[in-house]
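Final paragraph of the annual report: two paired records, presented back to back.
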Amino acid sequence: MKIIIGSVLCVIFFSKLGIAQSSLTTEQRFALLEQRLHAAEKRADKAEAEISALKQTPGVEKINATIAAERNAPPKLALNNHQMLKFYGDVEFNFDGASRTGSLTSVKTSANNNWAPGDRENWDINGRILLGIDGKQQSTNGQYAGFTVQPLADMNGKMNLDDAVFFFGQQQQWLVKVGRFEAYDMFPLNQDTFIEYSGNTANDLYSDGYGYIYMMKEARGRSNSGGNLLFSQTLDNWYLELNTLVEDGSSLYVDQRYHGTKLDNQKNVVYVRPVIAWHSGDYSVAAGIETNLVNNAYGYKDATGNWHDQSGRTGYGLTMNWNTLKNNLQDGVVVNLNTAYMNAEDEKDFTAGINALWHRVELGYIYAHNKISEFNTKGIDSECEIDCAILAPGNYDIHTIHTSWQLPNIMAMPNFTIYLGAYASWLDSIAQPKADDQPRYGARLRLKYLF
């Protein structure tokens, strides 16, 4: 290196020397050349030392390795600062067997809505695939905003939608949500696979001619005919929530029929559903109310032309929970005690239930009491006359036992699970003694895959 640099400098020096310094003697020229070569050697030594030090710096090799890895890496999604995006899915398919396709109650026991009432056994395969996308952006002061969208593809070849939500709030403090979603669960059923219907919670809850298991879900949300607006606040161990649901109120009833009468929808209902919950350690308690604020939203006219408002509905709920599973995955227990009461036009409904989960086995019991003060038997069709359980005013008691067993880690995959579920339901009635011998029962095998 020194010889090459010196040679170049020598050539340059002699070219300039011949032009600008022709008047110098030979001894003077060689002395000047020796000085300049000595200075050039010092500069070369300094440059080599700097290059050597640079090569020995750890950060340089790390930077070079990072650049090489980024060049060879596959393309990736780039987001703005403080933004997160999550893609996930939920596959759920069921193999069902039931004593009858009809039910004693309005609680859905099949994801296939095409099942019609009947008096014969039935087998069914149903299910759906959920694809979810969650987006969230956070600011430096703990505030955030985001969205959730969950399209559903079912086995019947139809596309549906589970949740579609926009939300914003302050971390660990307050939250605002708007869209299609479910509010606080005031009647949790643990690990059940049959009674906990995986579908719309605010539509088709009441089926005329069948018992009504009221679970304080009428204003919970996820409606096909309206949307939610929810405000919530967290204060230490307390959680406060106010959910508002605006929808076509007659969508609560299957075929818009109530007590044998076809309902006429005049305007949308506005449900408000305040809930207050307290959590401490393994225990939690929640109480709530749901009520419609709009009078004469829907109803019917009798034979004389008088209008009967059927939209006045107010429900109350209380749920208590004991959960040691989160701190003891092997031997933890989850116990829920639920109760709810509905005060509606011409009907009063009370429901109480208890369920427990231990070692992946769940067992629960639900009791429902329906007191119907008015019923138009002339409005019942011939098909319902054969299979329906409730066809007259009176008191009806409904008993339901449900159970499920979770089999995890199928094929050594933690996200693949099988559930085995079963239920039995029967009805006691003084008004209709023949309803006593109409039990219903069924079993389900559910394949559950998360990704």
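The closing record of the year follows.
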Amino acid sequence: ILFPYLGKVLIGSTDIRVDDPDQVRCEEDEQRYILQSLAFVFPSIKVSDDQIVFRFAGVRPLPASEDSFTGRIPRDHFCEFVEPAGHLPATLCMIGGKWTTFRSFGALAADMALKRL
């Protein structure tokens, strides 16, 4: 996936299952994989490591699944409220989604939060 972003290009992404979102980083092997994929699809576009100005990683909160291949987990998005427990407040959990559905996902979350308020 490629997006123009602030005069540069944002390229991604991989789909690696993670157990601890706080430990997620864009590692060298992922960067190589993304650049190799780009070269396969667009052989005339050459990107070298010294042209990369930033790497980042994020975690897509997919629905719970026993499937070992993350590509088979549905990307539909939905929101659920987790009711208050003890000293913890109610939490709106946003699950699933893709970059291409962020507007409808945001509208769904905003509508649910406003209705609740």
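Helices lie at 28-41, 102-116. This concludes the annual technical report; the extension proposal builds directly on these records.
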